[in-house]
Amino acid sequence: MYHELLTDMYEFSMANGYFQTLPHNKQARFDVFYRNVPDHGSFVVSAGLMQALDEIKHWHFTADDIAYLRSLKHFSADFLDYLEHTKNQCTVKAIPEGTPVMPQEPILSISGPLMEVQLLETLVLNIINHQSLIATKAWQITNAADGRAVMEFGARRAQGPDAATYGARAAIIGGCSSTSNVLAAKLFHVPAVGTMAHAWIESFPDELTAFRAWAKIYPDTAALLVDTYDVVNSGVPNAIKVFKELRAAGHEPVGIRIDSGDITQLAKKARKMLDDAGFPNAKITASNALDAHIVKALLEDGAPLDNFGIGERLITSSSSPVLSGVYKMSELENNGKWEPKIKISNSREKITLPGNKQVYRLYKKDEPSKAFADVIALNDEQIGDTISAVNADVYATHDKVELKDFVAKPLLSEILTPDHEKDIETDTFAIQKFAHQKVAELPTATKRLVNPDRYPVFLTKNLADLQQKLISEYRNI
C-alpha cells in the first residue's frame, strides 16, 4: 500500500492552483532539513530514505483516489485528469541512511514539476522526521549502553502500526541489536526476540512450575522473568533451580530479566546468586521504561547488566518526541533558468539556504578517518585547497574562517530520476554498520550525552553571499 493521499489538504489546494495559473512543466527544487537536534544533541542519524524512495518512485493516483478527490468538489476536472495520468517525474539527491547530519544540511533534495514536488512534502517529511528521530534516540541509548546489546521492545507503545514497524527498523539503524516486533523482523530481516510476560508466571500455580514449563518448551533459549513476585527471595532462586535442571539435561540457560524495582541493587544481588550457583555466564537483562540517561546511571552505579530491553522511551523518543524537519523551496525554474529562492524570517535561524547545494564533510589530511567540520556549498562550486567560509551557526561569535589542510567528501548524490534508480543500501544491519563508522568519525566531544560540543558547519562564501543578496532584495520589495 502506498500513501499518495497522506498529504495535507493545502498541498492539493496549492497543486490545483499551480495547475490553473502556472506552466504545467514548471520545475522546482525543495530541500528536506531540520533546525534543532532532539535532546540537545549535536547531530541526527538520518533514516527513512529507503521507504521515502519507494513511495516517490511508485507515486501515482488510483481511480479510487481520484474519485475521492472529485467528491470533495474542490479541484478542477482537468487537474484531477492530470493527476490520474501522471507518474513520478521527480529527481532525488540524498545523503545515505545512517549518516550523522547537522542542522540546515539537506538530507534530501527533490526536484521536478512544481505540482508533484509540492504534493510529496507531507509524506516525505512524515517518513524522514519519524525514522531519523528514532534512529537518533536509538544511537543515544546504545551509546550509553557501552557495547551491551539493546533490544527494541516498543511496539505496544508506538503511535500506530507503521510507527512501530518502521520505528523498529530505525532503531536497528541507530544501533539496536534486535526487535520484539515480529512484523518488523520479517520485513527487514532482523532478529525477533522476547522472553515472557508476567501473565505466563501468573497462569501457573506457582512461579517454579511456570519456569519449569517454559524451560521444557524452550530448553536452549531459556530466559526467565524473575520479578513477578520477589526477585531475590523467589524469582532468582527458582530460576537457579530450573537452570540446574537444564544443565543436568545437557542445556545451558540464557539468563534472567528484571522488569521492575531498584534494578541496580537487584541486579547486583542476582549476579552474586547466579555466580555462586555456578552460572557466571547467565545474562541479566534490564527493562522497564529505560532511556539513555537511566542506562548510563545504572552502569555508572555498577549494575552488572548484560542487555537492555527498551520500549516506550525509544520508540516514541518520549523525552524529545518531534524532529521538526522542514521541506523548503530552494530553486524555481523560470523560462528555462533556475532561480534561487529563499524564505525570510525575523528569526535568523529560520532563514533558508537558497539554490542547489552540496554538503561536504571535511577530514583531517593527516587523520583521514577524523571529520572536523562540514561545509554547505552551491552545487556547481569547485572546492579547492582552501575554503573561505562563514559559520552556519547564527549564534557563533567568530563567523568567518579559512578552512585548509582537509580532504572534502561530498555527502549528497543523485539516487533517483524518472528514468533511473541508483542502488542504495537496504540491508538494515549494513546501514547500522555504516552509521557506526560515520558516527565514529565525529569528534568525541560532539557525542556526549549531556552538553555535547556543537559540530562545526560552515557555508561557503558564495552561498552566504547569495543568501544575503536575496535577503536584501526581498526586504526591499
UniProtKB/TrEMBL annotation:
Q: Keyword Glycosyltransferase: yes or no?
A: yes
Q: Which reaction does it catalyse?
A: 5-phospho-alpha-D-ribose 1-diphosphate + nicotinate + ATP + H2O = nicotinate beta-D-ribonucleotide + ADP + phosphate + diphosphate
PTM statement from Swiss-Prot or TrEMBL: Transiently phosphorylated on a His residue during the reaction cycle. Phosphorylation strongly increases the affinity for substrates and increases the rate of nicotinate D-ribonucleotide production. Dephosphorylation regenerates the low-affinity form of the enzyme, leading to product release.
One GO term in the molecular function aspect is: nicotinamide phosphoribosyltransferase activity
Nicotinate/nicotinamide phosphoribosyltransferase domain: from which residue to which, for each copy? 150-349
One cellular component GO annotation, for this chain's record? cytosol
Nicotinate phosphoribosyltransferase N-terminal domain: from which residue to which, for each copy? 5-129
Q: Which UniProt keywords apply?
A: Glycosyltransferase, Ligase, Phosphoprotein, Pyridine nucleotide biosynthesis, Transferase
The metabolic or biological pathway listed in the UniProt record of this protein is: Cofactor biosynthesis; NAD(+) biosynthesis; nicotinate D-ribonucleotide from nicotinate: step 1/1
Q: Which Pfam families match?
A: NAPRTase, NAPRTase_C, NAPRTase_N
| The protein's role, per its UniProt record | Catalyzes the first step in the biosynthesis of NAD from nicotinic acid, the ATP-dependent synthesis of beta-nicotinate D-ribonucleotide from nicotinate and 5-phospho-D-ribose 1-phosphate.
Annotated protein name in UniProt = Nicotinate phosphoribosyltransferase
Species this chain originates from: Lactobacillus ultunensis DSM 16047
Q: Which gene encodes it?
A: pncB
